[in-house]
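request received
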Amino acid sequence: MSDILRAEGVCRDFGGLRAVSDVTMTVHSGDIFGIIGPNGAGKTTFFNLCSGIYKLTEGRVFLCDKEITNLRPEVISRLGLSRTFQSTQLFQFMSVLENVKIGCHAATKSRLVDVILHTKTYREDEEYTTQKALETLQRVGLSQYADTMAGNLPYGIQRRVEIARSLATDPKILLLDEPAAGMNRLETDALQDFLKQLNADGQTILLIEHDMKFVMNSCNQIMVLNFGRKICEGSPQKVSSDSEVQTAYFGKGGINHAQN
Ligand SMILES: Nc1ncnc2c1ncn2[C@@H]1O[C@H](COP(=O)(O)OP(=O)(O)OP(=O)(O)O)[C@@H](O)[C@H]1O
Ligand SMILES: [Mg+2]
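response:
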């Protein structure tokens, strides 16, 4: 089980607020690793630190043993860390295929001049991105939507197209920020099956999610953040029975009901 993503003592301050405080964790190859915690716990900030969107105040991040601390987002993406965002980021008036092609551009060489002059490099890149996007849509079972305008699709499918766009770079690890947010139960269950299938095909996944049933049923390892600090980490069973987690996050009622 090799390390895919490792955070060591990661901290991030916003003015006087320490949004992420001394977080150390490792995602291993083959994990579906979940991050949970109350609103404002620092989950998205932690993603932003790993993916290069925010600079770390302290600490280090490694991707497959290569240090990626404070590298630019596009460099980190090229090295194999791909992510989706908490709110939908699709281009609503573009087709699904065009949206997924955007995810492939990290691997292309065309510059603006190539695009304007339709150079050989541009034509080769176009062929590559179209092929790669079609393959990815096929892989995730969304081929039938290739020509559909993204904005015309049900919300649950749109979120899956976003995942497809991130997968088009063949990432070593896929980071998903609240992939089930705004989905109904049917869409959430379909997403769960979809992620489990991706994982069974070898994709390592790190996800943030508030839907406890989803997290408990999907993840093999869970980290709980509260006020920027890690308060617990372990299997779903361990996390759901931890008294500090119960009090800080779930309230006194517990979360055993969420495992049904
Ligand atoms: N760019 C920023 N500038 C200032 N403060 C920020 C910034 N980004 C996040 N914060 C603060 O850092 C803390 C953690 O926010 P973050 O978005 O990481 O929480 P979260 O766990 O993802 O919450 P949610 O579950 O609501 O998405 C919050 O107090 C938030 O207001
Ligand atoms: Mg968030």
